[in-house]
Amino acid sequence: MNVFESYESNVRSYSRSYPVVFHKAKNAMLYTDDGKPYIDFLMGAGALNYGHNNDYIKSRLLTYMEEDYIMQGLDMFTVAKSEFITAFNDHLLKPLGLPYKFQFCGPTGTNAVEAALKLARNYTGRSNIISFMGGYHGLSQGSLAITSNEYHRKAAGIGLHNVTFIPYESNKPNDTDSLAYLSMILEDTHSGIEKPAAVILETVQAEGGVNVASPQWLRALKTICEQHDILFICDDIQIGCGRSGDFFSFQRAEITPDIVVLSKSLSGYGLPMAMLLIRPDLDIWQPGEHNGTFRGYQLAFAGGKAALEFRRSTDLDIAVKRKSAYIRSFLGKLAAIDERIHIRGLGMMWGIDFSAFEDKLLAKKIAKKCFEDQLIIECVGREDRVLKLLPALTIEEEVLDEALDVIRKSVVQCVSTTGKVVSHQA
Q1: 49 falls within a domain
Q2: What is the distance between the alpha carbons of residues 206 and 147, in angstroms, rounded to a whole number?
Q3: What parts of the sequence cross the membrane (predicted)?
Q4: Which of 75, 84, 111, 370 could cysteine-pair with 375, CB 3.0–4.6 Å?
């Protein structure tokens, strides 16, 4: 029995799907301790948008450390923080006309979600939150309450309250019109549902199965929030930081959330960092009301600034949109193999949905076959029936082609074992 099985908690998860020991990494590749290469379509669950060990960001981090610049500063004023805020404002917020204030939270996304919920409740004086079925916002107590996954909720050990779940957008003809339902419960004095402090959502539900909200739906939801004096919180932790094709995933809808939650790839290098962008009049915090030793990791500030410079100097947004179109085209051809295969996605997050197949384990079998062929890819959505593609935004085109070919071969092989292939052309 290895050291992990002997001493590491049973709570470990990804290592169960990828039971090898990794040692080195570069851009889109991971390497085991014996040098075996794997293409990474997991990318730290979205924390490595700029690839493993990005050369430009690494050089800035090494310079920072070599100069003995401050590494732990609590929330004191530092040059690193000042430079990050300035770069973020100059490169992103000012050009988009977004006048946000910054709140640096604990090191992970779930802490920033907690801060967003706390602030919304304090500002409005209300406790209820509207969240969406299929949403994932973290596993600490408050963020878990607004996460819909039954498996995770059962582990809470206590009741999870002060949240109302409603359906996400759906184009299926017999599904609930989520926004009509939301309007009804807000306007009906007998709905029995308390007026919420906020609505929180991912514009693309990642863990929920790569469910993409349309710009029209997002705009309509924002309008409802404004009409009822409800705060609109955008959880851009995984689909943000450039993965959608724009830095912020809500840009395509031309809306301005009241609060934006960011983490994962914010530091540019996989370093822990999370923050809120807050509409200025919402900033009613008293000093230290939301606290934490590692709120604003100084090295992450340096990495985050370097990431913004890298994005700008390489026209990364343009490259992401080009690769997105390429992946979309590939998946369209893949879906033609069998009409039960459905694809969804945006930017460089895509899902291949096998929910229409009788074999509930089909997506997991395909993911396992991909891993055998040295591609790391995960399953998400209800019963893990959606294969999620999450490559590095910087992935080389030849590596992307190689990964997509592994997916194609794995899908063809595993779908063929389920019985008759139902072609779109049939």
Answers
A1: no
A2: 12
A3: none
A4: 370
Strands 231-235 and 198-201: parallel
- Local confidence band at 419 (pLDDT 50, 70, 90 cut-offs): low
Residue 1's pLDDT is what? 53
Check which CATH number belongs to the domain holding 214 and give it: 3.40.640.10
Q: Is residue 140 part of a domain?
A: yes
Q: What is the pLDDT of residues 120-155, one digit of tens each?
A: 999 999 999 999 999 999 999 999 999 999 999 999
Residue 145 lies in a domain: yes
Annotate the chain with three-state secondary structure.
Answer: CCHHHHHCCCCCCHHHHCCCCEEEEEECEEEECCCCEEEECCHHHHCCCCCECCHHHHHHHHHHHHCCCCCCCCCCCCHHHHHHHHHHHHHHHHHHCCCCEEEECCCCHHHHHHHHHHHHHHHHCCCCEEEECCCCCCCCHHHHHCCCCHHHHHCCCCCCCCEEEECCCCCCCCCCCHHHHHHHHHHCCCCCCCCCCEEEECCEECCCCCEECCHHHHHHHHHHHHHCCCEEEEECCCCCCCCCCCCCCCHHHCCCCCEEEECHHHHCCCCCCCEEEECHHHCCCCCCCCCCCCCCCHHHHHHHHHHHHHHHHHCHHHHHHHHHHHHHHHHHHHHCCCCCCEEEEECCEEEEECCCCCCCCHHHHHHHHHHHCCEECEEECHHHCEEEECCCCCCCHHHHHHHHHHHHHHHHHHHHCCCCCCCCCC
Residue at 354 is within a domain: no
| Total domain count, the chain | 1
Range of the domain at 122: 59-314
